[in-house]
Design a protein that fits this description.
single chain; 309 residues; alpha+beta; 3-stranded antiparallel sheet
């Protein structure tokens, strides 16, 4: 398809106006990381970039092709394409959000985003989906999974696991995580990466979630995979790929630990604390302050994150 650039002056004056918006680069301190982590970061960034590609494939039928077109135009020296790509990257797609919180298509000739992205057949309605499951209860579990695509084939609805549809991309990302797991110095983080590497291919994320909780000892954190269903505005069932690479802020984390020491006092001061109060020491929830090194995919879409919990 032949794409067209929008009126870039309008885009620039509206979305890049320094009086109303500010674009900044994440630049956390990573100098304290040991050599194994320094070597790991490029591979983790590459794995996250794969998640970003998958998100663009999932989110809109033309997103990835449009971004590739803009990059190509920039390589040819097109300055207008540079502005267009900046705005595209703010929302991680061709659809923007105005300051009145309304969605608008930023690029001419681009089709309206399907409510479920590319994760459902374009002709499927919620009523048809529910009725099909009612008539075929044996497919209910697969159809309702967060990581299956629903399509039509010969008049029937079928489910396709993400791990099959996106096999090549996921195997590449999985390989990168496995490589980092072999060189990173923190054993708990290594175990987490190994589990996450397997989960990207298997589609079972329970083990990697468990090992992630135990990886608090690592100075960096990685969130990666099919994360949230916010972008599925058709049924709120299907998760979109994304992720973030986070670096522990040592100084701020130490400050937070001081507050954690007083949580029991806060718990005891709450109404009905004698009846419903908990022993905070037994809960032992790990808390850390992290800086964002890189954020992609679903995390970066439409609503750039200020806080990721």
């Amino acid at each position: 398809m032949a794409f067209q650039l929008p009126n870039v002056e309008n885009l620039k004056n509206y979305y890049l106006d320094p009086e109303r918006s500010r674009i900044f680069n994440f630049n956390p301190n990573i100098s304290f990381l040991d050599e194994s982590y320094q070597k790991s970061i490029p591979k983790l960034l590459k794995a996250l970039k794969i998640m970003d590609v998958l998100f663009l494939i999932q989110d809109h039928p033309q997103s990835l092709e449009l971004r590739e077109y803009l990059v190509k135009e920039i390589n040819f020296g097109n300055k207008d394409a540079e502005i267009a790509l900046k705005v595209f990257n703010i929302f991680n797609g061709p659809e923007g959000i105005t300051y009145d919180n309304n969605k608008e298509m930023l690029f001419p000739g681009i089709i309206e985003r399907p409510k479920g992205g590319t994760l459902y057949d374009e002709t499927i309605s919620v009523e048809e989906f529910d009725e099909y499951i009612k008539e075929n209860p044996d497919v209910s579990e697969d159809f309702n999974k967060f990581n299956t695509i629903i399509k039509k084939e010969n008049g029937k609805l079928i489910s396709i696991p993400y791990e099959i549809k996106y096999r090549n991309h996921l195997h590449e990302a999985s390989k990168l995580l496995s490589e980092v797991a072999e060189i990173v110095s923190d054993k708990n983080f290594s175990l987490y990466l190994k589990a996450k590497s397997k989960s990207l291919i298997s589609g079972n994320y329970f083990d990697s979630d468990v090992t992630w909780i135990k990886s608090i000892t690592s100075p960096i954190d990685l969130v990666i995979g099919p994360l949230e269903v916010y972008e599925d505005t058709l049924m709120s069932k299907k998760a979109f790929y994304g992720g973030a690479l986070l670096v522990k802020n040592v100084e701020e984390s130490l400050r937070v630990e001081k507050y954690i020491e007083h949580l029991q006092e806060l718990e005891n001061a709450l109404p009905n604390s004698l009846k419903f109060g908990k022993d905070i020491k037994k809960i032992n929830v790990p808390v850390a302050v992290v800086d964002i090194l890189y954020m992609v995919g679903e995390y970066q879409a439409n609503r750039p994150g200020i806080v990721v919990g």
